[in-house]
């Protein structure tokens, strides 16, 4: 509790910072002892037959059962997780928390990365189901698809379809946070996917192109779920400028083709702020102004789409992914998640060290070399210093 | 300032050396392996996969494991070193089954058919065998471990403060962060109480000082839009929209609270009992 006081807490906490502008609303909403769920806005998830509240929870960082129980209490029914989140602990936490809750009263989605064989893919799904203590997931995503060819690849579709045929998944889809417009377009052409979980936010340079494809996919009966909606949460590394969370969510939800969003909410303070969106998705003029101002900031969010940096780098480093790791660490304040990503990329500490000068030109004017030098240090920091 | 830093460094080195010297005892009629395996915060996941994250959350620092064999049978002794007795206890309590066979081992321990777990000092110790017939050998090994490392079996102060009346045995838990889902409730000790009429949970947070305890209560008030004045000895009732009513007060630097109570009178009564024990 060192150095804790109300002023410091509000300054340093994500919920606090985001909540400063919303304090009045926050307190007003808290006066309700039993949240009224009747006025919650819900939308149909494509042709799946599932109807979801516009606000769901991404459980990549959530480790508190209290948050899940509280979310259910206020009417949130959809929890998104993945095989690899928190090394399986995200699924375990959800399984333990939801085991006594009526299975028909909530929707679980998980993600498994495509595998070389169907057996391996199904084995991993079985592991997920065991952790979740469930016989099936409502939505199974193939995790992190970034190329149109991969979306159309019959082998990938077959892995998902087998899981569905075996009753281990009610509906199938994929998640994407790279090349979203062409990936979604490919999914429409493939005609095999029921749900798409896509990155999109008000700072995404390709937002218009993504929205165009979302509309087309939606018309074809594909359910759309939005992620990375906070554009990193902060606009600077020092965390002096915060994204207006409610405004960022509303910007997404003003598009009725998008069924729901899955922001991370790791504590009740964040839930309390975001839950207002369950009943109101109209952007106020102040919120529009906040977003307009924030859009002009460089921010921490890398679009992951222009890819000019990839060919620029003489070492062929996965620059967009490293920029994403930087956002996880400084924007989401989750250095562990950043380290997890860097580890999967096999990056060592300061991979740019022996480069004379950086040849990468970033369309967002990120100082790529400095950011890589900064974030790659995580590889040599023990996990307990990051927890 | 520099002098203080060196002093701190020496203390840390001293502590590390002490911790590094876990002594593994002999076990009559069993052959002790010549070498131990050890795991750090970086490598624990190689041994227990995703469970490593929970250990790290509870201040895990290092684990050493050694095996004892007798023919084709074996017993393994895993010693998890945590940063403090309270975090070692916390991890032990986190994994403790809801019903089990408690035995006198360490500060608290339990025996299952082929496993014996206990905690003492900064250690969470797990012994397991490949056969249920080795329960006695596991208990001997636990005793030998405590004796060899000269560990004192003392109930720590942090568990003594909670009142004994209606206290549910073995219900003590420790939450390193996010207690009740709140980001401002960290390092929390919780104990359950139950009688014919009531069932509730008491908790404490040891804050840095009186002001920090008060500041934490204020944060809870902000969350719940509670504008009552905090006065010495007064118990506040906070209406937490997610967790129900929570009572709060403090005794100097210790924040005291109660939740899950059926009516305010009972919540206040139990909170005051705990406050009395702390005074």
Describe the structure.
The complex is a heterodimer of chains A (387) and B (279). Chain A is an alpha/beta fold and 387 residues long. Chain A folds into two domains: 276 residues, TIM Barrel, CATH 3.20.20.100; 79 residues, no CATH class. Chain A contains 18 helices and ten strands. In chain A, helix 9 runs parallel beside helix 10 and helix 11 packs across helix 13. Chain A is globular and about 60 Å long. The two termini of chain A are 17 Å apart. Chain B is elongated. The two termini of chain B are 36 Å apart. In chain B, strand 5 and strand 6 form a beta hairpin. Chain B is built from eight helices and 14 strands. By secondary structure, chain B is of the alpha+beta class. In chain B, 32% of the residues lie in helices and 30% in strands. In chain B, strands 1, 2, 3, 4, 5, 6, 7 and 8 form an eight-stranded antiparallel beta sheet that branches. In chain B, strands 9-10-11-14-13-12 form a six-stranded antiparallel beta sheet, sandwiched between helices. Chain B folds into two domains: 128 residues, Protein Transport Mog1p, Chain A (3-Layer(aba) Sandwich); 118 residues, 3-Layer(aba) Sandwich (Protein Transport Mog1p, Chain A), CATH 3.40.1000.20. Classes of the chains: A alpha/beta (387), B alpha+beta (279). At the A-B interface, helix 4 and helix 12 of A face helix 3 and helix 7 of B.
Tell me briefly what this model is.
The complex is a heterodimer of chains A (387) and B (279). Chain A has 387 residues and is an alpha/beta fold.
